[in-house]
Amino acid sequence: MAFPGATVGRMSAQAASRAAQGPVTVRMFTQRFSATRRGARLARYLAVQQLDVWGFPYGGEVSDAVGLIVGELAANAATHGRVPGRDFELRLTKLPGSARPGTLRIEVADTRTGKYPPPPGALAPPPPDSETGRGLLLVAALASCWTVLDRPRAGKVVRAELHL
Question: What is the pLDDT of residues 143-158, one digit of tens each?
Fold first, then answer.
């Protein structure tokens, strides 16, 4: 018995193209951390360790950039996105690419609503004598792109992508 609209013995061009590409591997690492300075340091450390497992050696260009991005986003989540008793979440996703080696997506989610960083195009450098306010400027300089998204539940996700 054939299914309606099915072609017996033939594959669509799109399906044939996908089959010729072989399997697609998406790698993902997700971990929750306490919204503290210690949690932010641990997030950075584990992110760099995970990249090493995925073939991006410690001390390499990708590892260093991701370490700084995760460090800044995790510190922001622990400092500005902190809700007592709630953790923040780090997610690293290695997405395959067709024209390039792929994209590494870094997401840090917190549970605080109502306090959002300025959008990517509205970042302004802090005064020269200020000791804070440069974290997202570093993220913007190192990442291929970044944005802020609402979480389905309370809070927000700051997402940065690095094209490999």
Answer: 999 999 988 888 899 9
Per-residue model confidence (pLDDT) at position 101: 77
Q: What is the pLDDT of residue 25?
A: 75
Tokens at 112, concatenated:
């605080």
The pTM for the full model equals 0.81
Of 2.30.30.40, 3.40.50.2300, 3.30.360.10, 3.30.565.10, the CATH number of 24-124+134-163 is 3.30.565.10
